[in-house]
Amino acid sequence: MGAISHRGVAERSDRSLAPRTAVRALGVIAALIAFALLPSSADALTSQVLQASASNTPGFADSHMNDGSPSWTWGAATGLGGLTVRSQKSGANYRMLLKWDISLIPLDASVKRGDLDLYMNTSNTATRSWQVLRLTNSWVEGTSTGAACTTTGVTWNSRDCVAANNWTTAGGDYTATGAVTITGSGTNCTNKWISTCFGVWNIPTIVNAWLTGSGNYGVLIKDTVEGNAQGYAYWFSSKENSAANSPKLTVYYLRKAQNLTATAGNGKVILNWAMPGGTPDYKGTMIVGGSDLTSVTNFSPVDGTTYGSGYVCGGTLAACGVLLDDTTSCAGGTCTATLTTTLVTNGTAYYYKAFTRDTDTTYCGGGTGACYSGASAIVSAKPMTTVSPDPKWGYSTINGASFAPPGLDAGSPGMVVFGDSTSLHFVNASGTSAGTWVVAPFTATGSISKRPPVIPSAYTTTGVNVTYATSQDAASPANGYLDAVNTSTGARLAAWAGQGTFSGNGLLGGAAVWLQAAGNLTFQPGSVTTDVVFAGTRNTGAGSTTNNKVYAVNGNTGAVVWTFSPGNMDIISSTPYVDYSHSAIWVTSRSAGGTGQPSVWKLNAATGALFNGGVNSQDKWSLGDIDASPTPSGNGQYIYVGTVSGTLYAIPIGGGTAIACTPPSCGGSTGAGVIQGLPWPLWNGNPETIIFSRNSTVHSVSFNTSTAAFTTTNWTVTLSGTPTVSAPIDDGTGNNIYVGASDGKVHKLAVSSGLEQGTAVTVTASGTTVGDPAFDFTNTLIYVGAGDGHVYAVTPW
């Protein structure tokens, strides 16, 4: 199969992958006009009712406490309804505590109303005022129906029975911020929801605080004037008394615009974003932007207010203004807007953020304007001429840097696929839509830090254009995730439902794929004949220097085929190499900081066993810590690996002693640090030239595969200003290589001498790191990610 080669992380397959036509249904507009999608049929905020479905529903709690019995607890009480608020002298004031599970409310929700309603079992005819306050400390409901606390449960004195857990202030720890008071009479309110007689507490400030990190400890309800001589008591239904009549919180909200991105071009900026989808039926978007970052950051629309395109929020419209304030529905859709030369100038940085909007202001204060969500994160873009040495385009995400080389799907115009801290992006490589979405980004569970392999449908058993992305969350120990995503739709493959999660096993390294189109192989157990995906773990916490694994996963279904877990495998940060000629998988790992355990592993691809039964220098090599991915020689006779200490090794593919190239005697007398990314052989005959990078140096050596020896140190180069450098890549001519650097530039070096060729292309500010480049042979472009959160397309020079 000539269309796809079998190289490691930075596949040479990118120059010749089968074409694929990407279809987009995004309306592109001149000047400042937005998208046009089908009109809506309804217009209302999303609502979510939070109420216990049974007495033991997880995440829900209710109880009361009183100062006359400060050590008593009533977490499971049902008498007279089970919950009370009371104002009475002689130490008999009752306060109620309520808590709801808010996991059904999205974390990006902007809560406009939060209606708290109670079912009154026994009322009092007196007019009283009750206050809801946000609790600032945790408490335990307990299981007592009313008795002195002996084991667990909230009391007037304690959050959970014992003195060690006492409230900071007896009677509960709370804040007045967001507090709400309602006043009414219990007349004719018995056996009714208080919304029909008193009204409800609207507590959006409290609910928003729960969603933004203040801690969901629930609320406390108390009489505003306690210690009354008459003794006013009101009893309400608890979840133990009646789940159907238990405390109810109805939350109305808008979600933020999703995945706002900005693509800089010549005299224009193109913005892409997605609406949250489903209900509510959002009435369009407000885009605010300009060159004044402070003004853009500080602006927030007021609910019920009409702004309109052209509203100035910072001196001039170009500095800070409402650039788009449409009333077109885009619910569930992807959206685009083009800002042209009337609003942007080449060479100037601009900043943008988005607000979803709805014209139903019933739940956000009324008025004739709109109801607005919270702001998306800010993206930036700097328009440029797109003529070399300027980049052709720059794509900015809200989700941080991406230093791995993008995956490439050739076609017309082709697609660039890359990950960041939360998402996988699918971007047009060239043409009139260059640098903009093919489809909306895919949201991953963890952070994506390695290049995803992109496989056209003609070469995969899935039958669709597919990419496989590894990610890892920040839990301790970390959890790993492997996702199979259709690059034509941006959706995870339906057949992978319930698969691809590796609890307690992080996945930081990249995925490699055995393609049946490249070589038929039956995997065991289960006689699997689909494509199979390989990924190694990067575990955290205790035992992580020995408890790592390699997984083989069915590429069609996500089911684990086999697991290699030798008990002495350190963390894996690299991408495996698929050796079709020998039906083997090569994996590199760390080795606990020494050479006492293996760091290069050769596995039987079909079974996951060590290839030769576990023989040193035949299927495992102890070479010291390795983070770089393995890569083959041009004739397929050797595997090259680079260690953390800077030594380059050539390993006979059939087994044997690893041949070392150890600086300074080999690889140059200067340089320090880890070998970056992977060694880059040029596949230029025998002896073969190998380029590799360390911290601030780029090296060229030659290896003779016939004599099994490193024969020549060709050159070592330190770039001007001594920036750190990325892994290298060549342009396919055998004459030039490219590296990114921490001076914000992409550099071109001559293969023959290491001398810089022409003027390095500046893609971002000096001091900002530029990551590993990828070369697109179809469109003749170089792609690099940078520490400023952008991916840039650069024309070779």
Keywords:
single chain; 56 strands; seven-stranded antiparallel sheet; 797 residues; mainly beta; 2 helices; globular; five-stranded antiparallel sheet
What does this structure look like?
- This protein has 797 residues and is mainly beta.
- The chain contains two helices and 56 strands.
- Strands 20-17-16-24-56-55-54 form a seven-stranded antiparallel β-sheet, with no helix packed on it.
- The radius of gyration is 31 Å and the shape is globular.
- The two termini are 31 Å apart.
- Structural category: mainly beta
Which blocks of ≥5 consecutive residues have pLDDT under 50? 1-43
Q: How many beta-strand segments?
A: 56
Amount of beta strand: 25-35%
**In one word, what is the shape?**
globular
The amount of helix comes to under 10%
- Distance N to C terminus: 31 Å
Q: What's the multimeric state?
A: single chain
Short description:
It contains two helices and 56 strands. By secondary structure, the protein is an all-beta fold.
Set out the fold topology.
Layout: E1 46-50, E2 61-66, E3 72-73, E4 82-87, E5 94-99, E6 109-117, E7 119-122, E8 127-135, E9 147-148, E10 174-185, E11 192-193, E12 201-202, H1 204-211, E13 219-223, E14 232-237, E15 248-255, E16 258-265, E17 268-274, E18 285-290, H2 293-298, E19 321-325, E20 334-339, E21 350-358, E22 371-372, E23 379-381, E24 393-396, E25 407-409, E26 415-419, E27 423-428, E28 437-443, E29 454-455, E30 466-472, E31 480-486, E32 491-492, E33 501-502, E34 512-514, E35 532-536, E36 550-554, E37 560-564, E38 577-579, E39 584-588, E40 600-604, E41 620-621, E42 631-632, E43 638-642, E44 648-652, E45 659-661, E46 680-681, E47 688-693, E48 697-704, E49 709-718, E50 729-730, E51 736-740, E52 745-750, E53 761-762, E54 774-776, E55 781-785, E56 790-794
Antiparallel strand pairs: 1-15, 2-5, 3-9, 4-14, 5-13, 6-12, 6-15, 7-11, 7-14, 8-10, 8-13, 16-17, 16-24, 17-20, 18-19, 18-21, 21-22, 21-23, 24-56, 25-26, 26-27, 27-28, 29-30, 30-31, 31-32, 31-33, 34-35, 35-36, 36-37, 38-39, 39-40, 40-41, 42-43, 43-44, 44-45, 46-47, 47-48, 48-49, 50-51, 51-52, ...
